[in-house]
Amino acid sequence: MGQPMMMGREQLLVSFLERHAEELTRDWIRIVRSEEQTRSYHKLDEKTVYERALKVYQQLGRWVAGEFTKGDIQSYYTAVGGRRRREGFALAEVVRALVVARRVLWFKIQSEGMLQTEMDPELALLMNNKVLLFFDRAIYYVTRGFERR
User: Fold this and answer.
1) Of residues 45, 136, 148, the one with CA closest to residue 95
2) In this model, does residue 3 exceed pLDDT 50?
3) Local structure of 52: helix, strand or coil
4) Is 60 helix (H, G, I), strand (E, B) or coil?
5) Residues 115, 124: contact at Cβ < 8 Å?
């Protein structure tokens, strides 16, 4: 089977994520490495933090493209939750990191003027729904994985 067919609207968001993934990752790192609410991320080496953040944005792009399923989100983020607990993170830190990832994305979308110039209302709604659903699921499954003993 080939890659799933994407509508033009989804492709616009996927292209945006691909173009800006590294910048989004750097912005995310700057925030989580400086916030008191994400202290455990301060202790990790730069490469590890970078790879973890970049993976979130890459997965979001794959989710929008239809290549990353609800089941993929469930299995990956459940495992992440368990790993973060074993690494000594507080659950609130892990959830905060995902919230920051979502906020960094929205700030970038706004700063690029994407909502005003390239998007019709249907695309804005699609982006909002796809992005929020991805992060809602990631947060839920991270929490479930974290709470498992």
Assistant:
1) 136
2) no
3) helix
4) helix
5) yes
User: What pLDDT sits at residue 95?
Assistant: 98
Torsion angle of the four alpha carbons 30, 108, 132, 114, in this order, in degrees rounded to the nearest 10: -170
Tokens of 62: 């794959």
Q: Which H or E run contains 3?
A: none
Q: Is 120 exposed, middle or buried (0-12, 13-18, 19+ CB in 10 A)?
A: exposed
Tokens of 85: 């607990």
**Residue 110 CA neighbour count, 13 Å, CB half:** 7
Residue 135: pLDDT over 60: yes
Query: Which amino acid belongs to residue 24?
Result: L
Give the CA diameter of the chain: 48
* 13 class by beta-carbon count within 10 Å (0-12 exposed, 13-18 middle, 19+ buried): buried
Domains of the chain: 9-147 (1.10.490.70)
Residue whose entry in the numeric block shows the structure tokens 């970078």: 50
